TrEMBL record:
Name of this chain's protein: Uncharacterized protein
Biased composition range(s): Basic and acidic residues: 151-163, 201-213, 223-234, 494-507, 656-667
Keyword Transport tagged: no
Compositionally biased residues, Gly residues: 171-188
Keywords, ordered alphabetically: Membrane, Transmembrane, Transmembrane helix
TM spans (from-to): 20-37
The keyword Cell cycle appears for this protein: no
Region feature Disordered, mapped onto this chain: 151-248, 494-518, 656-676
Organism: Paludisphaera borealis
Length: 695
């Protein structure tokens, strides 16, 4: 039942609602009309309008002094922007197209598969070859904390001394090789203290700032200015005196040079297949990882370990000069090749790949070695004695069967046809792909130091070279080495990658290479058996030893021949000519050639023919049983030592250094392309270095 009050209100509204609304509207209208009548009217006359119009016309047509306008603008805080001058300066700036390149390339979608990317398949370096060396390199002196030591005062070169052009290492090396800076992250990639105690990030920042200043200087010169304006302090700072330079010293070094080839054409194919962009896909080589394993006293091989990068970087990050490079830039990735320090003593050997060196840089020289019976006839004589010797009386390796076995297979993979020696040497001579260049020099890191992912080494060559230098090899130690490449991940933080492929890691690592040949770092004082002197009526048979003395202080290596019979110590202090690199001529110095090794027994020499055979006899190679200072007994035999590649290179380079001591050294190349083949053959047939065979 409806509410009576609601019903009454409803009836009232229907009956009187419209009348009430009209009444309210009428009241509002009357009020507004009354207020309008009360407001005063506009009191303006035609004369006033005319006056105002004439004033406006006068203001528009009146001329105002520009100085007054400028004063008013300055008072209001407006300043002259010199827009015209800035426009003129902008027209002179050299624009670099790479600075405006898009982070991602503009691509056209392909039918079917589209642009879904994969991770490229990485490959391992091939034909890995390791070779020992020693010498004295020019480096910056460092204090106990690894900071460069400055000269006490700035020195000026004598006016009479000819200025030699310095081939300084580039800022981006790592390479840089090896790594970031090429050695920059050889095994760890972590930030480290570099030159002057600065971190890697600080060094990279300084390198970029220096590059910006140099670009600004170049732009100024392109615009017609030979030098930066005096008021331009930033550009003028390039030419300012920065105080005393770092101190340079000659430091004795031992090293193992590890070279290899990389199938760059296959890498390009893998990248183009994985990244779906055949026109621009290029591998961004970041660094070269290096590991080695050491041979134990029982002949077994230890575990693979990372090469100590900090000790190597203390050398590679502090090079005042780098040596000459023979391979062109397009076959030498800067982040995969270590620079060669400029040698003041000694010469580089086996640090280039012969097949990648241009013809005009290959110096073909006779393979004969002056003096000492080291020529081809000496080699043939030793070969004959190895093949026909009847054997050592003491059970040593003198028999013809064992000699042939050593040539074909060799102990520990050191024979002519055995193991990785064939891969590292003979393979290169037979197919031209892995021929290793002996005695070359170079002028060579990581993602750091590259401004963008478009600024890195690129090439279309099929084969390229990789090279690592290990300055941590210990005397009388034997190693294997292996390498792998590290690249910047081209799919890092991309969203167009096939699921399951890595787009989160900044770098990708390739597989490890096969182990290198067995490489032995000779002792600082090493004795090599070179021949036999016949026994006299009152004397025992003597063996002629070539003693090679390496001085770890300055890197000078000097050979000298000594005679010793059973019971005698090999070597003694002797004055010998020492080569120099400053052009002042060879110097005579006292050198301690004492090996601390005692001759226990000797064998070899002239062997009569058996009964029934014609002829007077045959020569046998010398064999000596030696007692070392640590109590070990070793065997040295002429068959191995005369053809030893390391010994031959040292002897040849010493004679060359003496001959060239009258002129200032310009590069540290060794025996050259012509001498490489003979040295390589020696390495394959007896490349055990200065190591005696344990007995």
């Amino acid at each position: 039942m409806a509410n009576p009050k609601v019903e009454k209100l409803k009836d009232f509204g229907l009956r009187y609602g419209d009348k009430i609304a009209v009444a309210l509207a009428s009241v509002v209208f009357v009020l507004c009309l009354g207020m309008a009548f009360k407001r005063p009217t506009i009191d303006i006359k035609p004369e006033q309008i005319k006056k105002y119009a004439e004033q406006s016309e006068s203001n528009i047509s009146r001329r105002q002094d520009p100085e007054e306008i400028l004063k008013i603008l300055v008072d209001q805080g407006l300043k002259n922007s010199n827009f015209a001058k800035e426009a003129e300066e902008s027209a002179k700036i050299l624009l670099v197209a790479d600075d405006f390149r898009a982070a991602r390339e503009w691509v056209t979608p392909e039918p079917g598969a589209g642009l879904i990317r994969d991770n490229p398949k990485l490959i391992a370096p091939a034909n890995v070859y390791a070779y020992p060396g020693r010498g004295g390199a020019l480096v910056f002196a460092l204090d106990s904390e690894g900071n460069r030591i400055l000269e006490a005062e700035k020195k000026e070169a004598p006016k009479s001394e000819p200025a030699r052009r310095r081939r300084r290492r580039g800022a981006a090396g790592g390479g840089g090789s090896m790594m970031g800076g090429m050695m920059g992250g050889m095994m760890g990639g972590a930030a480290r203290k570099g030159s002057g105690g600065k971190s890697q990030a600080e060094l990279e920042k300084e390198a970029k700032e220096d590059e910006a200043r140099r670009r600004k200087l170049m732009q100024a010169r392109l615009s017609g200015k030979d030098e930066p304006a005096a008021k331009d302090e930033e550009a003028a700072g390039l030419l300012a005196d920065k105080g005393p330079p770092p101190k340079e010293i000659t430091k004795g070094l031992r090293w193992v040079a590890v070279t290899a080839t990389l199938d760059h054409a296959q890498m390009l194919a893998n990248y183009r297949d994985a990244l779906k962009n055949p026109s621009t896909a290029q591998p961004y080589y970041s660094r070269l990882d290096v590991q080695r394993q050491e041979q134990q006293s029982d002949g077994a091989w230890g575990e693979w370990e990372d090469v100590a990068s900090k000790r190597n970087l203390d050398i590679l990050d502090n090079l005042p000069e780098v040596d000459e490079e023979l391979t062109p830039d397009d076959v030498r990735p800067k982040n995969l090749n270590d620079p060669l320090p400029f040698l003041k003593a000694g010469l580089w050997e086996k640090v280039h790949i012969a097949s990648l060196v241009p013809k005009e840089k290959k110096e073909v020289a006779p393979a004969t070695i002056p003096g000492g019976g080291e020529g081809m006839m000496g080699m043939m004589g030793s070969m004959g004695s190895m093949m026909q010797g009847p054997g050592s009386a003491g059970g040593g390796p003198g028999g013809s069967a064992e000699m042939m076995s050593r040539m074909m297979g060799g102990r520990g993979g050191r024979g002519m046809m055995g193991g990785s020696s064939m891969m590292g040497g003979m393979g290169g001579m037979m197919d031209g792909e892995a021929g290793f260049m002996g005695g070359m020099g170079m002028g060579g890191g990581g993602v750091a130091g590259v401004d963008s992912l478009t600024d890195f080494w690129k090439s279309e060559e099929k084969k390229v070279m990789v090279r690592a230098l290990d300055f941590t090899a210990e005397p009388d130690a034997t190693y294997h080495y292996r390498l792998r490449i590290v690249v910047v991940n081209p799919n890092y933080k991309r969203d167009d990658v096939t699921p399951g492929h890595d787009n989160k890691s900044k770098e990708l690592t390739g597989p490890w290479s096969e182990p290198s040949n067995e490489v032995h770092m000779p002792s600082d004082v090493s004795a090599y058996a070179m021949g036999v002197l016949p026994a006299g009526a009152k004397s025992d048979m003597k063996v002629v030893f070539q003693v090679i003395r390496f001085n770890p202080e300055d890197g000078v290596t000097v050979p000298q021949n000594f005679e010793a019979s059973p019971g005698e110590i090999i070597g003694e202090p002797l004055r010998r000519d020492v080569p120099v690199s400053d052009g002042t001529g060879k110097k005579l110095k006292l050198i301690d050639f004492n090996t601390r090794q005692i001759v226990l027994d000797v064998d070899g020499g002239w062997q009569p023919m058996p009964t029934g055979f014609a002829g007077g006899g045959l020569p046998r190679p010398a064999t000596a049983l030696l007692l070392r200072a640590d109590g070990a007994v070793i065997v040295r035999d002429e068959a191995d030592d005369r053809l030893d590649a390391v010994r031959k290179d040292i002897d040849t380079n010493y004679k060359r250094e003496l001959k060239e001591s009258n002129k200032e050294r310009e590069n540290g190349m060794g025996s050259g392309y012509g001498g490489m083949m003979g040295s390589m053959m020696g390495g394959m047939m007896g490349g055990g270095g200065a190591r005696g065979r344990g007995r």
